[in-house]
Design a protein that fits this description.
It is built from ten helices and no strands. The protein is mostly helical and about 160 residues long.
């Protein structure tokens, strides 16, 4: 019985946390402009742009981790992917570039920092830790592929002319 009470409290706590997200929702257009400005800026690391593009591709393709037909949580996977991609994207912004863009767009830094902290609190810790490892894993995989020498061989194989023509 005590287990049910703690689960109930956790559910209420999560609901209250979600209510705290409502003020952030009103600032989504400002944050969309911020992300757009950062994506278009050549000083923004390309690996973070690629990550954001991959999340957008996930949304556009429509193949879901959890089918939309599953009640309640079916549509959440898209939201989780977007939130985590944006969070990782923002983690990769050089601090001086972020400050510049916030000033350009008239977004208050303190409100931005509060909103990012609130979103991070809503994201479960194990999910956040796992997702944060992706850039390092991709870099390691890319380095391993570079060291293997497979890219030049594949490029040579793709571009070689057919000897029968």
């Amino acid at each position: 019985m005590a287990k049910q009470k703690s689960t109930g409290r956790a559910g209420v706590g999560r609901f209250v946390s979600l209510l705290a997200f409502l003020p952030i929702a009103s600032r989504v257009p400002d944050y969309a402009r911020l992300i757009g400005a950062l994506v278009l800026d050549e000083r923004m690391p390309s690996d973070r742009k690629i990550m954001l593009g991959a999340a957008a591709g996930y949304i556009v393709v429509g193949r879901d981790i959890i089918p939309d037909s599953v009640p309640l949580i079916g549509g959440l996977d898209d939201l989780v992917v977007v939130v985590l991609a944006v969070d990782m994207f923002l983690d990769g912004v050089p601090p001086e570039l972020l400050q510049e863009k916030l000033l350009d767009l008239g977004i208050e830094r303190a409100a931005f920092d509060r909103d990012v902290a609130q979103i991070r609190r809503l994201t479960p810790g194990p999910v956040r830790r796992t997702i944060r490892r992706i850039p390092g894993l991709l870099k390691t995989a890319g380095n391993a592929i570079d060291r293997s020498g497979v890219v030049p061989r594949a490029r040579a194989w793709i571009t070689r002319e057919d000897p029968t023509t």
